[in-house]
Specification:
CATH superfamily: P-loop containing nucleotide triphosphate hydrolases
Shape: globular
Order of helices and strands: EHEHHEEHHEHEHHEHEHHH
CATH class: Alpha Beta
Largest sheet: 8 strands, mixed
Helix content: 40-55%
Structural class: alpha/beta
Number of domains: 1
Number of strands: 8
């Protein structure tokens, strides 16, 4: 299963929320999760969290080339194991290096095909998408594509066109609004054109909390950010499972996660 995370502009926290969602993935759907950076602006996982870039994307590409139908993908060759059954695959830190890594459409398509067929949940950190571009093979195969945006008007107005572009690729699209928009949820649903709308509080400690969660810090798991991650991850997992043809938890309604606005 593939779930993609991206933004339309700015830095609303795509990487942090991808990590938090992976760590908070509910027990009912408990399988290993892989967080993979596919961001042409360059990766931040390696430097931000002191993970380095190896093992990482280079190892992934080599593993995909070796992978054949019916064979298990050796994730230890390219990913760093973190708490909560999360694996992290960082990409190079510079945009120039990432452009080279992801320059081949066949390469990207091959990785996306392997991820879609893998038994794990692959959470793709696509960064700030320009159009759809390199992430298209992942979006095409995704059970859910999540667009993050801040609550400012100039951010919100860019979301509908991005949703339309993703939907043209066949994606089921949800929107995570970071902050407190001046609109009720039903207004956002109508404006965005999707019923999958989540709202989370903006937090200046988001990066710190995400890093602490990666280290299995108990204090971080008592924060509002972590509680929001648990709620959003439960709703996303449920919707992604439904899109992938799996069982749905009927107790997980949108209102139970976001409220009435």
């Amino acid at each position: 299963m593939i779930v993609t995370f991206s933004s339309v502009r700015g830095s609303p926290g795509v990487t942090s929320w991808a990590l938090l969602t992976a760590a908070a993935w509910p027990q009912a759907f408990r399988v290993e999760r892989v967080v993979l950076e596919v961001d042409l602006d360059g990766g931040v996982l390696g430097a931000r969290y002191g993970l380095g870039v190896e093992p990482g994307v280079a190892g992934l590409l080599a593993a995909v080339r070796r992978h054949s139908s019916g064979a298990d993908l050796d994730i230890t060759a390219f990913a760093r194991h973190m708490p909560d059954d999360v694996w992290v695959v960082p990409e190079p830190e510079s945009a120039e290096q990432c452009a080279i890594v992801w320059s081949s459409a066949a390469t990207v398509d091959g990785v996306a095909a392997v991820a879609a067929a893998d038994e794990r949940v692959w959470i793709i950190d696509a960064g700030r998408l320009r159009g759809v571009g390199v992430a298209a093979p992942f979006v095409t195969r995704a059970a859910l594509s999540v667009v993050l945006c801040r609550d400012a008007q100039e951010d919100l107005v860019q979301v509908p066109s991005r949703i339309a572009a993703l939907q043209l690729l066949g994606a089921s699209v949800g929107v995570m609004v970071v902050g407190k928009p001046a609109y009720q949820r039903d207004e956002l649903v109508h404006f965005f054109g999707t019923g999958l709308v989540w709202q989370v509080e903006a937090s200046k400690d988001l990066v710190t909390v995400a890093g602490a969660v990666l280290e299995n810090n108990r204090r971080a798991r008592r924060t509002l950010v972590w509680r929001s991650a648990l709620e959003v991850a439960a709703a996303m997992a449920d919707r992604a499972a439904a899109a992938a043809g799996g069982p749905v938890d009927d107790d997980l309604t949108m209102e139970s996660v976001i409220g009435d606005g």
